Amino acid sequence: MTVKRFIWAKTFRTFIIVPLFLQVSFQAQGAAPDFIPESPESKLTSEYVQLTEDGGRYGVAPDLGFCSEWNPEFSYNGYHCCKKFARTRKARAKSCFRQRAKASFCDERTAEQQRYVESVSSGKVSDVLSFLDNEIRRSSEQAFCTVNNGFLAQGRPILATASNRLLIRNAGRCVAFGTDRMAALTEWLGRQVVQKYAEAEYSNVKLLVGDVSAPRGGCLLGLSGRKGHASHTSGQDVDLGFLWARKNAQTPNEFYRTFDPKTNFWLVQNILQNPYACVRVIFLDRKHIRSLNKEINKHGSQEDRQFWAKMARFVRHAPGHANHFHVRVGSVSGAPGCTVDARPELEPEDENALPESNSEVLEVRIPSRSTAGSVAEFQTSDVVKVHP
Predict the structure, then answer these.
(1) What pLDDT is attached to residue 46?
(2) Using alpha carbons only, what angle is made at residue 50 by residues 330 and 238, rounded to the nearest 5 degrees?
(3) Distance between alpha carbon 218 and the CA centroid of its chain, in Å?
(4) What are the structural domain ranges in the chain?
(5) What is the pTM of this model?
(6) For the chain, what is the HEC assignment?
(7) pLDDT at 59 exceeding the cut of 50
(8) Does residue 308 register a pLDDT over 80?
């Protein structure tokens, strides 16, 4: 009789009490019926982790209704706000919901995100940077969990406009959504490029923006489901192409391995000193880091060398970054590292970083310098396509 009573009590609790409690809880929160977990075995507690190390305004931890609305992997996570991050590379390869492997994430856009795009396109939002600055001042937290297992609330699409020199690499796939601070950073960088290369012969110099996050964040898989990103889940990571400043040359709409250390040191300086988002780390291939070191030590000013002596530790080697920068930001503005005791060496890498594309990655051979020390013009024959 004791065993039968135990089985009856457990069955009653699992299939009657727990679902009833869930329904009452979600109704009390004002959540729609769609937010009610389907599984009676779901835990009522969330594994949400408040990321307060950079001083961001995180407020109250989100409830399950909020996570159900914004986290596209909520059900796959076992109805937890944040999934448990896999420790090994093999486990991470299987940690994404298979439905995340798709050609486009545009179906995840909200009506507000689409209205913002229309407002910018129509000129209703005439100054994007001023608009984003106001949004930053009044908005609440947008990035939740961590960069490896997070999601994005009220993500902001990053757009190419007449005021900036941004080139969105995969605009039709809807993977350039970030926090307001990330959007402001890229908009500001695009305007810096406009000012730096204002001459007519440099009018085609643009900053290539690759993957950031999906409209609501979450795991970002490649088209085949095998390649993708270990991060880029919370709108705080962006891939930026190397800056290629050549007269009367068109910036390719693909990442390329050509790296001009002088031009890209200027870009790194602006990234690290931007006024909108503190930079936690920049991932870059070690051979390009060595090129930066050589350029600064040989041709840099005293001010450049002092800057690099302080900031070089925030530019870290990571495999798969031979053709682009990977920039990770925090939830506040300020100095690189986002905290006084910043540890950029502990930032998790984006192991599957080489972007998957239907086209090849461009690699441009750098011509030799002339006796006068000037760089020769690129010719069409100098550009070759190689498989990543």
Answers:
(1) 38
(2) 30
(3) 11
(4) 100-386
(5) 0.76
(6) CHHHHHHHHHHHHHHHHHHHHHHHHHHHCCCCHHHCCCCCCCCCCCCCCCCCCCCCCCCCCCCHHHHHHHCCCCCCCCCCCCCCCCCCHHHHHCCCCHHHCCCCCHHHCCHHHHHHHHHHHHCCCCCHHHHHHHHHHHCCCCEECCCCCCEECCCEECCCCCCCCEEECCHHHCCCEECHHHHHHHHHHHHHHHHHCCCHHHCCCCEEECCCCCCCECCCECCCCCCECCCCCCCCEEEEECCCCCCCCCCCCCCECCCCHHHHHHHHHHHHCCCCCCEEEEEECHHHHHHHHHHHHHHCCHHHHHHHHHHHHHEEECCCCCCEEEEEECCCCCCCCCCCCCCHHHCCCCCCCCCCCCCCEEEECCCCECCCCCECCCCHHHEEEECC
(7) no
(8) yes
Query: What type of residue is 108?
Result: E
Assigned token pair, 181: 């601070």
pLDDT surpasses 90 at 367:
no
Parallel, antiparallel or unpaired: strands 279-284 and 315-317: parallel
Q: Is the pLDDT of residue 384 over 50?
A: no
Evaluate if residue 383 carries a pLDDT over 60: no
Buried b (16+ CB within 10 A) or exposed e, 159-195: bbbeebbbbbbbbebbbbbbbbbbbbbbbbbbbbbbe
Token representation of residue 261: 């250390």
d(CA 345, CA 284): 13
Pick the CATH number of 100-386 from 3.40.50.2000, 2.60.40.1190, 3.30.1380.10, 3.30.565.10: 3.30.1380.10
Task: Report the alpha-carbon distance of residue 37 to residue 57 in Å, rounded.
Answer: 29
264 CB neighbour count, 10 Å cutoff: 23
Residues in the chain: 388
**Residue whose pair of structure tokens reads 């300086």 in the numeric block:** 269
